[in-house]
Write a structure and sequence with these properties.
about 35% helix, 2 helices, alpha+beta, about 100 residues, four-stranded mixed sheet
Length: about 100
């Protein structure tokens, strides 16, 4: 899936994260700002990379500001930002690619 325009999903509330994506420069450019980066930074990166891989996104600039979000929240925010970026707001493939 090709990222077409910048998109954002999430909030800066406690236990959430804000995901910002935009078209990349040929690779995944990942930036993370987290209140729990020392404890969970590697796990957050793993969840983000797996989610992008499941969505077939390999050319993206992604920035995450995490306020203690659970893995399922991070995954949902990444998915939401990707689908907003490509303009797919209806007929999301729940149970398919994003399972």
């Amino acid at each position: 899936m090709d990222i077409k325009k910048p998109a954002v999903a999430g909030t800066l509330e406690s236990s959430d994260c804000m995901v910002t994506i935009e078209p990349g420069d040929g690779a995944v450019d990942f930036a993370l700002d987290s209140v729990v980066i020392h404890q969970y930074g590697n796990q957050i990166r793993k969840v983000v990379m797996e989610t992008l891989s499941n969505l077939h996104v390999d050319n993206v600039k992604i920035s995450i500001v995490d306020k203690g979000a659970l893995d399922c929240t991070i995954k949902a925010r990444v998915e939401g930002a990707v689908y907003r970026s490509v303009g797919q707001l209806n007929d999301l493939p729940w149970g398919g690619e994003i399972r």
